[in-house]
Specification:
Layout lengths: L3 E3 L7 H10 L4 E3 L6 E5 L3 H11 L8 E3 L6 H4 L5 H10 L4 E6 L14 E5 L4 H10 L3 E2 L14 H8 L5 E3 L11 E4 L6 E4 L5 H8 L3 E2 L29 E5 L2 H11 L5 E4 L11 E4 L6 H15 L7 E4 L7 H11 L4 E3 L6 E6 L6 H10 L3 E4 H11 L1 H11 L12 H8 L3 H22 L5 E5 L14 E6 L2 H12 L3 H9 L4 H7 L2 E4 L5 H21 L3
Parallel strand pairs: 1-8, 2-8, 4-6, 5-9, 10-11, 12-15, 12-16, 13-14, 13-15, 17-19, 17-20, 18-19, 20-21
Antiparallel strand pairs: 2-3, 3-7, 4-7, 5-6, 9-10
Helix pairs in contact: 1-5, 8-19, 9-10, 11-19, 12-15, 13-15, 16-17
Bound molecules: threonylcarbamoyladenylate (TXA) and magnesium ion (MG).
C-alpha cells in the first residue's frame, strides 16, 4: 500500500482528500494536540478492523471516537449526563476523553466489546476540519505499532505505519505530547482511568471528587483487569530495559550516577546532562518545565532504539499536574520497575587525611557524583559567629572570649588559654565536637549523598555518623611537592609541616577505607577518586538496612 503524505501548507485540497479516505473506509494518520492518531470511520466495522490489523492491536482494546464538537456527543452516546457537557465546555477542544454509554450505532468492534465508548474532541483545527468534512466520528488510537511509544511527529508515524495505511496528514510536532486524560463518567464518583494531557487537578476543580484507578500508579497483578483495557499492556517500551527513578531530581541523579555503567542510557532532566556525560543521554527537558517533558518523553524513549544503550535509567517528575501522566508513561515503559530515591537511606561518607594528599580533588569528585560536601572547618568558623548554643558553651567554659562590640571571637585570647594546656584543649575540643558534627549533618539534610570533610573526623566522633570513613593518603614526596606549590613555601618548611601531622598509620587503623593518591596529576586523581566513591556509594546503597 502506498502511504500518501499530506502537507497542509502546500496541498490545496488536502481536507477533502483526507476526508474522502475516511469516508471510503480507509486508514489515515492524523495530528492531534496530544499524539498522532490512526483514524478510520468509527461507525464502519470493516474500517475499524483495519486499525487493529495495522497496529497489531489486541481486539479487546477499545478505540476512542474523535468528534469536532460537543454537539456530536449524542450521536456516539446513548446517554449524555450534564457533567459531560460541563466538562466539554471547560476542556474541549482538548486532551480529555470521556467514557460514556455506547450509542447502538457504534459497533462493538470499536469499543472492544464494551457497552461504553470513549469520546473526545481534539484541539487541532486541521483534524477537526477533516472529521467534520468526513461527517463521521473518527475512531483513532495512537498511531504507533502496538507496544511502541506513541508518535508525536509525522516522522514517528511514518516510521511505524508507512505501507500499512492510506495516508498521513503532517501537522507538525504535537503540542501536548502525551495522550488525553481518560475519565469514566459512567461510575460515581467519576474515575480517572488514564492520566494525560489534562491534569487531574483541573478535573477535580470541575467535578469535585475523582477516583483514581489503580492501574494509573501500580502494576496490576496477573489476571487483574484495569477499567481501561489498554492499561494492562506493556507499552511505550524501548528495546532496552528501563529503570525509573522517582524522588527529588538531585537524589534520583545521584542514585543513577552510582548505578550507571559504561554504554548505558540515561533519560534525564536538562539540568543533569553534564553529570551523565559519556553515557547515552536523552533529555527530558528542564526539571521545572513539565510542558517540554510531556512533549519530549515519547521521542526520547523512541530515540534510545537508535542507540546501543544496554539498559536505561530515567529520572521521573513528581506526580503533580502533567507529572502524573509523564511518570505513568515512563513507569509503563519500565514495566513498573521503579526505584524511589527519596526512600533510600542517606549515604554519609566522612573524608579525612593529611595536608597535601589531594583531598580537594577527591571532594570535587564526590560533588561530581551529586554529593553534598560540608567543609567542617569552614562550618566551625561560621558557627563561631552565628551559633548561639556553641557560643554559649564556649563563654561558660572560657569566659568572655567574644568581642562585646563586634561579637567576633578573640582568637588570641582563646589561643592563650588552650595552647600548651592539654586539659583546656580537651575542654575546647569536647565543646566543638558536641556542636559541629550535628550541624554538619543538618547541612546535608534531604541529600542522598553527604560528604563530611573534617581533619579531625575520627577524633571528633563524627566518624560514627558516617557509613564509611575515608582516609586520603599520598606518598610523602608528592605531598611535599603539592604543599610547596599550593602554599608557596620552601621545601624545608613543607617537610616540617608534614612531620607535625598525624601519621598515615593512624588513618589506616581507624578509617573504614583508604584512598591512595598515586596519580601524577590532580585531574587524574580526581578521576581515580570518582571511581572509588562511585563504588563505595553503590555498596552503601545496595547494603541491606
Ligand atoms: O490522546 C489520545 O487519546 C490519543 C489521540 C490519538 O487522540 N489516542 C489514544 O488512543 O491514546 P489509544 O487507543 O492509544 O488509547 C486509548 C485508551 C486505551 O487504554 C483504551 O483501553 C481506553 O483508552 N479506552 C477506550 N475506550 C474505552 C472504554 N470504553 N472504556 C475504558 N477504556 C477505554
Ligand atoms: Mg496508544
Amino acid at each position: 500500500m502506498n502511504t500518501r503524505i499530506f502537507h497542509p501548507e502546500t496541498d490545496d485540497n488536502y481536507i477533502a482528500e483526507a476526508a474522502a479516505i475516511l469516508r471510503e473506509g480507509g486508514l489515515l494518520g492524523l495530528p492531534t494536540e496530544t499524539v498522532y492518531g490512526l483514524g478510520a470511520n468509527g461507525l464502519d466495522e470493516e474500517a475499524v478492523r483495519g486499525i487493529f490489523l495495522a497496529k497489531g492491536r489486541p481486539q479487546d482494546n477499545p478505540l476512542i471516537l474523535h468528534i469536532p464538537d460537543a454537539s456530536w456527543l449524542s450521536r456516539c452516546c446513548s446517554q449524555v449526563p450534564e457533567e459531560a457537557y460541563r466538562l466539554a465546555e471547560h476542556f474541549w477542544p482538548g486532551p480529555l476523553t470521556m467514557i460514556l454509554p455506547r450509542h447502538p450505532s457504534v459497533p462493538l468492534r470499536t469499543t472492544g466489546g464494551l457497552e461504553t465508548v470513549g469520546v473526545r474532541c481534539p484541539d487541532h483545527p486541521v483534524t477537526c476540519a477533516i472529521i467534520a468534512a468526513a461527517g463521521v466520528p473518527v475512531a483513532a488510537p495512537s498511531g504507533n505499532l502496538s507496544g511502541r511509544p506513541s508518535p508525536t511527529s509525522a516522522a514517528h508515524m511514518q516510521e511505524d505505519m508507512t505501507g500499512r495505511i492510506h495516508g498521513i496528514v503532517d501537522g507538525g510536532p504535537c503540542r501536548v505530547g502525551v495522550e488525553s486524560t481518560i475519565i469514566d463518567l459512567t461510575v460515581t464518583p467519576p474515575r480517572l482511568l488514564r492520566p494525560g494531557g489534562l491534569p487531574l487537578e483541573q478535573l477535580q476543580e470541575v467535578l469535585g471528587e475523582v477516583a483514581v484507578d489503580k492501574a494509573v500508579t501500580e502494576k496490576l497483578a496477573e489476571g487483574e483487569k484495569p477499567r481501561a483495557p489498554g492499561m494492562k499492556y506493556r507499552h511505550y517500551a524501548p528495546k532496552a530495559p528501563v529503570t525509573v527513578v522517582t524522588g527529588s531530581a538531585r537524589r534520583s541523579a545521584a542514585y543513577i550516577l552510582s548505578c550507571v555503567e559504561e554504554g548505558d542510557g540515561v533519560l534525564c532532566f536538562d539540568e543533569y546532562r553534564d553529570l551523565f556525560r559519556g553515557h547515552v543521554i536523552q533529555s527530558l527537558g528542564s526539571e521545572h518545565d513539565p510542558l517540554s517533558q510531556a512533549q519530549r518523553v515519547f521521542d526520547a524513549l523512541r530515540a534510545f532504539d537508535e542507540t546501543e544503550a544496554a539498559t536505561i535509567y530515567a529520572q521521573c517528575p513528581g506526580s503533580e499536574g502533567l507529572g502524573l501522566a509523564i511518570g505513568n508513561r515512563l513507569k509503563k515503559a519500565a514495566g513498573f520497575h521503579v526505584v524511589d530515591a527519596d526512600a533510600l537511606p542517606q549515604v554519609v561518607l566522612g573524608l579525612t587525611g593529611g595536608t597535601g594528599a589531594g583531598k580537594t580533588s577527591a571532594l570535587r569528585a564526590l560533588e561530581r557524583l551529586g554529593g553534598c560536601v560540608v567543609d567542617c572547618d569552614a562550618l566551625y568558623h561560621r558557627m563561631l559567629q552565628t551559633d548561639e548554643a556553641l557560643r554559649g558553651d564556649l563563654v561558660a567554659a572560657f569566659g568572655d572570649i567574644f568581642d562585646p562590640v563586634t561579637g567576633l571571637l578573640d582568637r588570641q585570647k582563646l589561643g592563650s588559654m588552650v595552647f600548651g594546656n592539654a586539659r583546656q584543649l580537651e575542654k575546647l575540643d569536647a565543646i566543638v565536637f558536641a556542636h559541629v558534627p550535628r550541624r554538619a549533618l543538618e547541612e546535608t539534610e534531604g541529600q542522598l549523598i553527604a560528604g563530611l570533610d573534617a581533619i579531625n573526623l575520627l577524633q571528633s566522633g563524627m566518624g560514627r555518623l558516617c557509613g564509611r570513613t575515608v582516609g586520603i593518603l599520598a606518598p610523602a614526596e608528592g605531598r611535599i611537592r603539592r604543599i610547596m606549590t599550593r602554599d608557596g613555601i620552601s621545601e624545608e618548611y613543607a617537610r616540617l609541616r608534614l612531620q607535625a601531622q598525624v601519621p598515615d598509620d593512624y588513618y589506616r587503623q581507624h578509617c573504614t577505607d583508604i584512598l591512595e593518591n598515586t596519580a601524577d596529576t590532580a585531574a587524574e586523581f580526581e578521576q581515580q577518586a570518582l571511581e572509588f566513591f562511585r563504588q563505595l556509594i553503590k555498596e552503601e546503597l545496595c547494603r541491606k538496612p
